[in-house]
Design a protein that fits this description.
The chain is α/β, with parallel strands linked by helices. Helix content is about 40%, strand content about 25%.
Length: about 240
């Protein structure tokens, strides 16, 4: 489903966010990208979504070389990918229903077909009774579930998520991951960037650990220690 072949991404100023990265995610897998802040996790996802393009190397998604996707064809390319963000990226002046319907409206679906798909997506994340509410009236966990519903409403083959539980407590984080697991069980390929190793361990999924833009399996112990230290610091501030 996803293949990186010797991919480097260099930003202005000479910073290499990814350096000669090669990896494969098979169709139907649920895989986590781990690493410190700045390790290259977000850049990896942005390359898959064609928000960025590689400086060198090839990114292949579902058999399609992204380097050959013209700017005009990017919207059509992205319809096969669901994207979930840590900060939700919801439209706060629109109700939940409209937020979830947005990809379908852009794709030109009729109101009747869109409504059916929106309600099915909301039902999958247990928010069917919230369709008329505005995002600001929802909890952080509910807002994240709206973002997930929007990502899956078009029934994509691939779902990518960037730190989707970064702002949630452990119980809500596990709830979100279980939602992802249900999608994976019906054949959706998932690639999730996260530094929460303890949470990932509960799911038993393969990990792709990054450090300085490269694969680095020895880095994971440091990531666990860093995350534990951050949690302890947060408890101290709220205790």
């Amino acid at each position: 489903m996803i293949q990186f072949e010797n991919v480097t991404k260099r930003f202005p100023g000479g910073h290499d966010a990814l350096r000669g990265l090669s990896l494969v995610v098979e169709k139907g897998e649920m895989v986590f990208v781990t690493g410190h802040s700045g390790a290259g996790k977000t850049t990896l996802l942005r390359l898959i979504a064609l928000i960025e393009r590689p400086t060198s190397g090839q990114v292949i998604v579902d058999g399609q070389n992204t380097s050959r996707v013209s700017r005009r064809k990017i919207p059509a390319y992205r319809r096969q990918i669901g994207m979930v963000f840590q900060d939700h990226k919801l439209l706060y002046d629109r109700p939940v229903f409209d937020n979830v319907a947005l990809p379908l409206i852009i794709a030109g679906l009729s109101h009747r077909d869109a409504a059916r798909k929106v309600r099915a997506a909301l039902d999958q994340v247990s928010l069917l009774n919230k369709e008329k509410q505005f995002p600001e009236t929802l909890s952080s966990g509910e807002q994240q579930r709206v973002g997930i519903a929007r990502a899956i409403v078009s029934r994509p083959k691939l779902l990518i998520a960037d730190e989707p539980t970064g702002n949630l407590d452990p119980d809500l984080s596990l709830e979100v991951m279980r939602i992802f697991r249900r999608f994976n069980e019906i054949g959706v390929t998932l690639l999730i960037a996260s530094h929460d190793i303890a949470l990932i361990d509960q799911l038993g999924c393969r990990r792709i650990p990054l450090a300085n833009g490269m694969l680095h399996y020895e880095e994971e112990e440091d990531v666990v220690a860093e995350y534990a230290e951050r949690l302890e610091s947060e408890r101290g501030r709220t205790g």
